[in-house]
Amino acid sequence: MIDLYYWPTPNGHKITLFLEEAGLDYKIVPVNIGTGDQFKPEFLAFSPNNRMPAIIDHDPADGGDAITVFESGAILQYLAEKTGKFIPTDVRERKTVMEWLFWQMGGLGPMAGQNHHFGTYAPEKIPYAITRYVNETNRLYGVLNKRLEGRKFIAGDDYTIADMACYPWIVSHEKQQQDLNEFPNLKRWFEAIQSRPATIAAYKAGEGLRAGEMSEEDKKILFGQTAKSTQKS
């Protein structure tokens, strides 16, 4: 059994995508990031960056004590290695998967996240910031579209953790002011993953957790933290 500390965000969806695809038993432990669950001492004990997702694997491959993992990319890699699924054994193919996993973690996720923040959540609409992140998101969509030319999935013919990492960040393409019709390879890939039974199940798993729009108080909790405020506990 795996305890998944989760909230229905792109990074949270990455992990339910893997768990559903791999058929692993898991239990969702909600981490309401709007009310500050991510700052509770018991969560910080194994997720010190006060971010979800994080997991506790009660049945690790070595048969020892439970293993905790934080950071969505590290969780995907850990689960892939644990199960031997969705990551190649060939050194060159594996290298490619890891490149694109890190590309998502270092580029697509952070840039699309800032796109969401300045376009949707920021109390002041700053045209420069909005344009900056919409354009950078657009550039990254172009990189992925080019990569998918002639390929079924990001690393080739097989569905991998690289695809699972990237897909949730494309789901909100309209909010990011991106038109998938401008990226035909990306659109074909997106629709193929969207229709997978495990994808449908993964997104259904988070239904009902988030209630309505984020309040102003939620935004203060989520976006107003500093080192001083997070270390009070």
UniProtKB/TrEMBL annotation:
<dbReference type="InterPro" id="IPR004046">
    <property type="entry name" value="GST_C"/>
</dbReference>
<feature type="domain" description="GST C-terminal">
    <location>
        <begin position="90"/>
        <end position="221"/>
    </location>
</feature>
<feature type="domain" description="GST N-terminal">
    <location>
        <begin position="1"/>
        <end position="87"/>
    </location>
</feature>
<protein>
    <submittedName>
        <fullName>GST-like protein</fullName>
        <ecNumber>1.8.4.-</ecNumber>
    </submittedName>
</protein>
<dbReference type="InterPro" id="IPR036282">
    <property type="entry name" value="Glutathione-S-Trfase_C_sf"/>
</dbReference>
<keyword id="KW-0560">Oxidoreductase</keyword>
<dbReference type="InterPro" id="IPR004045">
    <property type="entry name" value="Glutathione_S-Trfase_N"/>
</dbReference>
<dbReference type="Pfam" id="PF00043">
    <property type="entry name" value="GST_C"/>
</dbReference>
<dbReference type="InterPro" id="IPR010987">
    <property type="entry name" value="Glutathione-S-Trfase_C-like"/>
</dbReference>
<dbReference type="GO" id="GO:0016491">
    <property type="term" value="F:oxidoreductase activity"/>
</dbReference>
<comment type="similarity">
    <text>Belongs to the GST superfamily.</text>
</comment>
<dbReference type="InterPro" id="IPR040079">
    <property type="entry name" value="Glutathione_S-Trfase"/>
</dbReference>
<dbReference type="InterPro" id="IPR036249">
    <property type="entry name" value="Thioredoxin-like_sf"/>
</dbReference>
<dbReference type="Pfam" id="PF02798">
    <property type="entry name" value="GST_N"/>
</dbReference>
